[in-house]
Amino acid sequence: MYRGWIAVIVISAAVAGGLGYYKYQQIQAAIAMAAAFPEPIEAVEVFVSREELWQPVTSVTAEVVARRSVTLRNELAGTIEAVGFEPGDEVESGQLLLRLDTSEERANLAAAKAEAQVAKLDLARNQKLIASGAGTEEARDRARARFDAAMAVVRRLEAVIGKKTLRAPFAARAGLHELEAGQFLDKASTITRLMGLDEEIWVDFSLPQEQAALEISSSVMVTLGGPDGRSASARIIGRDAFVNERSRNVRFRALVTNDLLRAVPGSLASVEVPLGEARVAALVPVTSVRKDSFGAKVFVLQPAEEGARGDSRAESRSVTLGPQRGDLVIVVGVEVGERVAANGAFKLRHGVLVNGRTSEQTAAADAIFSEEGS
């Protein structure tokens, strides 16, 4: 019984060894066949990177804020007697906006003024009596107290009438409203929102704390959102005194002439903020840049080893992209004067042999080919 099992094991091992040796021979034959073929080579157009002075910037979203704005509310309840502006009107400083009914207060004010006049006459009479020696100081003091109390009532009623008359505190554009004469308003009802008509306007934006190195009076570029995309230079006038504990951002305020931007308060804009000092960067063609899940890269052409069939080998290099300049783009990660693959870069992979030609050589070759074809 054991001899049978041993025989089976020996036969299985012999078969497995034979199959393994056969596979090894196949692999060696494939390697030898591959070695007989020359290393593949790719042809690309070569571009020598150019020098460009680049100011790194970051773009953040900003909000346009009016320098003067206020939401008007009535302090006292009452019935509307007159509305002095239309929805969306431009109003002047001191212009009547709303007057509540004050007929009762005006009647009480007339009575209070009459009482004050009587008290004033009584005080004057007592002062004359004291001067002639016929009056007493006690009577004069009581008369003065009645006069002061009467004047206090007058001032209180005048204050109530004033609170029921709302005027524009500055020249502004009013918001929309639905106010009509005869309408009753509870106290603290919203009358309208006023936006000042100033020549300059604020732009508020936030930066991460690690980028919040802007100096007061430095300049940023503000671009208004929308189809027009108007831009204007703004001057930093303020920085918040603290870092927001939730976002870890610092808030800044810039001042811009609104004649250039023509922005409406509350609208969104983008702000380009310079980061650090201007630096020397490289310009390469847009066609040189390849993008994948790891980011942007270009193929830098390094001299091939002696005896290679191509003049260069492609070196894949990760880069940081800057703004575009026509058909060229600024990249950080490539030295000025290095040779990079331009047209045809999509065919390359790291380490592949390359024969590079300049754009002039490519144009000359195309001309020769066209002549031969004709």
The overall pLDDT, averaged over residues, is 85
CATH class of the domain at 41-54 and 279-367: Mainly Beta
The rough form would be described as elongated
- If classified by CATH, what would the architecture of the domain at 41-54 and 279-367 be? Beta Barrel
Q: β content, as a range?
A: 35-45%
In helices, the fraction of residues equals 25-40%
Largest sheet: 6 strands, mixed
SSE string: HEEEEEEEHHEEEEEEEEHEEEEEEEEEH
Termini separation comes to: 86 Å
* Whole-angstrom Rg: 43 Å
The stretches of 5 or more residues where confidence is low (pLDDT under 50) are: 362-370
The tally of beta strands, per DSSP, is 24
Category from helices, strands and their pairing = alpha+beta
CATH topology of the domain at 41-54 and 279-367: conserved putative lor/sdh protein from methanococcus maripaludis s2 fold
User: What is the strand arrangement across the widest sheet?
Assistant: 18-19-20-24-1-23
Structure described in brief:
It is built from 5 helices and 24 strands. It is of the alpha+beta class. Among the domains are: 41-54 and 279-367, Beta Barrel (conserved putative lor/sdh protein from methanococcus maripaludis s2 fold); 59-66 and 201-274, Elongation Factor Tu (Ef-tu), domain 3; 105-163, Helix Hairpins, CATH 1.10.287.
Structure description:
- Among the domains are: 103 residues, conserved putative lor/sdh protein from methanococcus maripaludis s2 fold (Beta Barrel), CATH 2.40.420.20; 82 residues, Efflux pump adaptor protein, beta barrel domain (Elongation Factor Tu (Ef-tu), domain 3); 59 residues, Helix Hairpins (Orthogonal Bundle), CATH 1.10.287.
- β18 and β19 form a beta hairpin.
- Helix content is 30%, strand content 37%.
- By secondary structure, the protein is α+β, with helices and mostly antiparallel strands.
- About 2% of the residues have low confidence.
- The radius of gyration is 43 Å and the shape is elongated.
- It is built from 5 helices and 24 strands.
- The strands form 5 sheets. A 6-stranded mixed beta sheet has the order 18-19-20-24-1-23. A 6-stranded antiparallel barrel has the order 3-12-15-14-13-16. A 4-stranded antiparallel beta sheet has the order 2-17-22-21, with no helix packed on it.
